[in-house]
């Protein structure tokens, strides 16, 4: 089944404790991105990746890192999480650069930073 | 300035009523795409429609219809004969192709009461 998976789905952590949210897709998609969703703000793009080893900042990249060592995986790294990073996070992928507008979303990861 | 504005934060209707969700966007890009997504209480994002900037034809899919008007930069979504299962948060989104940027509106929460 074609899908985007995220792990964990729920995470409660404390300020400053490094964490990684994994994202994996099995559709051989080139384009992947991360969003955060906050009440009243909709979804905002954090980072995106056009292909392996190619990443770029979205609208709200501060406090986040990403890597794209393999095509299927695009982990989101919070080196030193803070309470303002408490949010619902979505990973998304698109077939190819030319069709990067059509995104498949993962199920979301709800992160709470205490 | 907001790129995508969904002025209706929350709407409540009674089942079988028609309801229109408004979306106004702002872009200087000549090539862009507009989307509607549904987010039910379970939290996942469900793709509903994609429209490119060169195609102003309205679209109907069952009880759903979309009205795209470039002259007013609007992409409104109408649900005819609403049902309780339509209760969700609906997001309008814009992708600027030449800038590789996605923008989501803040969402409209639709409550359909039996």
Per-chain topology:
The complex is a heterodimer of chains A (114) and B (114).
Chain A: E1 4-7, E2 10-13, E3 19-25, E4 31-38, E5 42-51, E6 54-57, E7 65-66, E8 76-78, E9 87-94, E10 104-105, E11 109-113
Parallel strand pairs in A: 2-11
Antiparallel strand pairs in A: 1-3, 3-8, 4-5, 4-9, 5-6, 7-8, 9-10, 9-11
Chain B: E1 4-5, E2 10-14, E3 19-21, E4 24-25, E5 32-39, E6 46-52, E7 59-61, E8 64-69, E9 74-79, E10 88-96, E11 101-104, E12 108-113
Parallel strand pairs in B: 2-12
Antiparallel strand pairs in B: 1-4, 3-9, 5-6, 5-10, 7-8, 8-9, 10-11, 10-12
> How many separate helices of chain A?
0
Q: DSSP strand (E) fraction of chain B?
A: over 45%
Portion in helices of chain A: under 10%
Structural class of chain A: mainly beta
Q: Calculate Rg of chain B over CA atoms.
A: 14 Å
Largest interface: A-B, 23 and 22 residues
Shape of chain B: globular
- Mean of pLDDT of chain B: 93
Secondary structure tally: strands of chain A: 11
Low-pLDDT ranges of chain A = none
Beta-strand level of the residues of chain A, as a percent range?
Answer: over 45%
Q: Could you say which structural class the secondary elements and strand pairing of chain B correspond to?
A: mainly beta
Main attributes?
heterodimer, A: 114 residues, mainly beta, seven-stranded mixed β-sheet, four-stranded antiparallel β-sheet, globular, B: 114 residues, six-stranded mixed β-sheet
